[in-house]
Amino acid sequence: MKTSAAVLSFAALSAATALKPRASSLPPVTVKGNAFFAGNDRFYIRGVDYQPGGSSDVADPIADTAGCKRDLQYFQQLGLNAIRVYTVDNTANHDECMNALADAGIYLILDVNTPKYSLNRADPNPSYNTDYLQSIFATIDKFQAYSNTLAFFSGNEVVNDPPSSASAPYVKAVTRDIRQYIRNRGYRTIPVGYSAADVAENRLEMAEYMNCGGDDERSDFFAFNDYSWCDPSSFTVSGWDQKVKNFTGYGLPIFLSEYGCNTNTRDFGEVKALYNTEMTGVYSGGLVYEYSNEPSNYGLVEISGSSVSTLDDFDALKSAFSGTSNPTGDGGYNSTGGASGCPSYSSPNWLVRGDSLPAIPDGAKKFMTAGAGTGPGLTGPGSQNAGGASTGTASAGSGQASQTGSSSSTNAGSAMYRPTESSFAPLVCAAVVVLSSLFGATLL
Question: Is 157 considered catalytic here?
Fold first, then answer.
C-alpha cells in the first residue's frame, strides 16, 4: 500500500512531539520455568495483602492517593517489594499511587474481580458472561501500562471445598480469556494466574488443572492461601515439607497469596523457611495477610484516618524479613517448566469431567479486537445474572491470540509508562494544525 506524504509527515511529527515515559529502575517481572525474574535476577515476592477497610468497605486503595502515600513509608519499613490488592475501580485514575509504588521498588499483584463482577461458584455458567468479561478486561486496560503491575489474579478461592471443584473450568476459562486479551491488545506479557484456597482434598488437582492442556489454556503461575504454619511451628510440623515434595517438578511459579496464621502469637518463623533453598526450588515467596487490622484481626497496623499505628505483628514481620536474605544464584529453580497432566474425575473431591473449557461468550468476542471500553467501576449494576453467558465448549487452541495488537504501550523495557503524560489528544490537534498549513494549498 502506498503511504501518502501527509501520513509520513504526521508520523514524523508524532515521533518528534510525543512525550517519553519517565525512566524507572523497575523492570517488568517475567516468568522463566517455574520462577519469576526481574531482568536476569530471580524475583521472590516479599509482600503483604493490602485492602484497608476489608470486605465490608469496598474501595480502591490504589485510587486513594492520600491513603497510598500514608502507607508507603510502612511498606518500605517492612522491606516489601509487592502488595496484593483485591478490589479496584476500573473507572478511576491510579497514576499517583502506582508511580509512587514504583519509585519505592514495589510491584502490584491485582485481583481483577470485584464483589459485583465475579464468578458464582454455586452456579458458574450464568455468571461467566459478556458483562463480567467486559469489566475484567477494562481493569486489565487500566493497569497493563504500569511496569510495576506484576501479575493479575483471575480469581480467588472460587473452589473452596470439594463440591465447588465443579466450577474449576470457568476459573480456567477466565484465565485463558485474560491471557488472550492481553496478547490481542498488544500489551506486554503480564503473568496471569489463580489464587486458590488451601483445600487438602483437591489442592494438587487444582494446581495440575491450571497447568494442563495447550499453551493458550495454561496459567502463567499458581498461588494458594496457606495458614498451616501456626507459630510455634517448623518446616516439618507445619507440613510445608510435604507440600514442597508434592509440588517438586511443577512447571509454573508457585507462591503464597496469603499466609500468616494468627492462632497463636505470630513471630513469622515461616519467613526463614520460605526464602530458604529448602523451598525456593518450588516457591517464589509470598504475601502476608494482611496490612490493615480488620475484624478478623490479622492486621500489621491500625489505621485511623491519616494516622497509622504499628502493631506487634508489624515488628515481628519486619524483624523476620530483615533477618532473612534471598538465596544467592537462582535458588534452584526448574528452568524448563512444562505442562502437567490433567487430573481425572474423582468423586467427591474433584468433579471436573474431561478437559474441555467453556467457550468465551459470543458477545465478549468483540473485545479482543475493539477493546473493552469504559468499565462499570464499583457502582455498576453487577454481572452475575446479566445474561449473555457461554453456550458451548471451546475447541483446542481457541485461546490463541487472533491478531497483532495495536496498543501504543511499548511495555518491553524497564521504562515506567505514565498514562497521563502520553495522551495523544494534544498531539493529534497539533498535527492537524501543522498538516493543514503544510498541505492546505495542495488540497485546494
Answer: yes
